[in-house]
Amino acid sequence: MHATPLRYLSSADVLAALPDVEERLSLAERTMLGLGAGAQLPPKIGVQPGPVGSFAHTMPALLPGAAADGSDDLLGMKWVVGFPDNVAAGLPAIHGLTILSDGRTGQPRAIVDAGALTAHRTAAVSGLAIQRWGPRPGSSPRVALIGAGAQARSHLPVVSHLLPDAGVILCDQDAERVKALALELADADSCLGRIASVETTTDISGVARDADLVLTMISFGRRHQAVPAETLADAGLIVAVDYDMCVPAAVARAAALFIVDDREQYLANRTETTFAGYPDDPLTIGEAIRGAVPRPGGAVLVSHLGVGLADVVFADSVLRVAESRGIGTILPR
Ligand SMILES: NC(=O)c1ccc[n+]([C@@H]2O[C@H](COP(=O)([O-])OP(=O)(O)OC[C@H]3O[C@@H](n4cnc5c(N)ncnc54)[C@H](O)[C@@H]3O)[C@@H](O)[C@H]2O)c1
């Protein structure tokens, strides 16, 4: 048995080795199905850095493979920190690293910048929800996307892939940021995908009105559940990426289906300030896929909090492409 190379993949390396949207959706499905079928995923643990609204979490995960010796297990961990005030200083709000270890020997295989990985694995999980419970392509759906940051940029290729005839309304409290994102979308060379029409607004209180699909991804802060419940009345599907920063508990309680990625983690994160008043008994995405739960008559709310298993599954996929194409930097051991 010999030492495997240890590879570092920067954000640019990750983007160069990222699979296409269809493959990303498959990886998201593999993750969600794995969660109920032998994967190990303790709820995130963390420490509390000083700046208001910041967080620092570790997310270990294991997806067992078929081989008894562990050689096709996916084993790893993400270290992720979020500092919302970074945005004002022109820095990304979220930084992180994912470490992959060999499932048979424990040798480290890779250290992967987790920024782009986090953004794209999260958008792929949202895409899975859109595929299952979202509006049909061809129905010219109205899509409200709230928060024009890193997550919005990774979600737009997924939305445009699944719903190419969507009319998108982008919302951010920061007029410059939302305008900049709309301009990027209009740029023919943009990698954000093609959207039928784009509007912008800074008004979070009205943006969701009349939308068929609402995607929420604003920064963490003190004020939770910020979108008025009555404006979400027509949304067949709401996908909340930002915990409960936007979606009121009344909407979660009234939803025909309330779905999370990982129940244990959701319950561990439900406190007096976060997910206050939310239901006790969500389905998981994996359970709903396995049970082929159809789009119901009423609204569906999918709140996915983000699981380390998705980072490990995506990092493994990116690493395999990087190895085959010689992308990244081999580190000394
Ligand atoms: N579920 C997951 O797996 C997962 C993964 C990564 C990030 N997140 C969460 O997604 C959210 C977005 O992350 P990001 O990296 O895109 O952050 P970001 O800072 O890049 O973008 C967030 C945007 O939200 C805007 N915003 C903040 N408050 C607002 C308000 N009240 N109304 C309108 N706009 C507002 C900010 O101006 C900013 O442009 C965060 O809450 C983050 O914690 C979730």
Structural features, described:
This protein is an alpha/beta fold. The protein has 2 domains: 134 residues, ornithine cyclodeaminase, domain 1, CATH 3.30.1780; 174 residues, Rossmann fold. β5 and β6 form a beta hairpin. α2 packs across α9. The protein starts with 5 loop residues before the first strand and ends with a strand. Nicotinamide-adenine-dinucleotide binds next to α3 and α4.
Shape designation: globular
- Unreliable residue runs: none
CATH topology name of the largest domain, in short, is Rossmann fold
Radius of gyration: 19 Å
- Count the beta strands: 15
What's the average pLDDT?
A: 95
Strand content: 15-25%
> Which ions and ligands are bound to the chains?
nicotinamide-adenine-dinucleotide
Largest β-sheet summary: 8 strands, parallel
Domains counted in the coordinates: how many?
2
Order of helices and strands: EHHEEEEEHEHEHEEEHEHEHEHE
Helix/strand/pairing category: alpha/beta
Descriptors:
ornithine cyclodeaminase, domain 1; globular; binds nicotinamide-adenine-dinucleotide; alpha/beta; Rossmann fold; 31% helix; 9 helices; 2 domains; eight-stranded parallel sheet; seven-stranded mixed sheet; 333 residues; 15 strands
Question: How is the topology of this model organized?
Answer:
Elements: E1 6-9, H1 11-17, H2 21-35, E2 45-47, E3 55-63, E4 74-82, E5 94-102, E6 108-113, H3 114-133, E7 142-146, H4 150-162, E8 167-171, H5 175-186, E9 197-201, E10 213-216, E11 237-240, H6 249-254, E12 257-260, H7 263-269, E13 283-284, H8 285-290, E14 300-303, H9 308-325, E15 329-331
Parallel strand pairs: 1-6, 7-8, 7-10, 8-9, 10-11, 11-14, 12-13, 12-14
Antiparallel strand pairs: 1-15, 2-3, 3-4, 4-5, 5-6
The structure holds nicotinamide-adenine-dinucleotide.
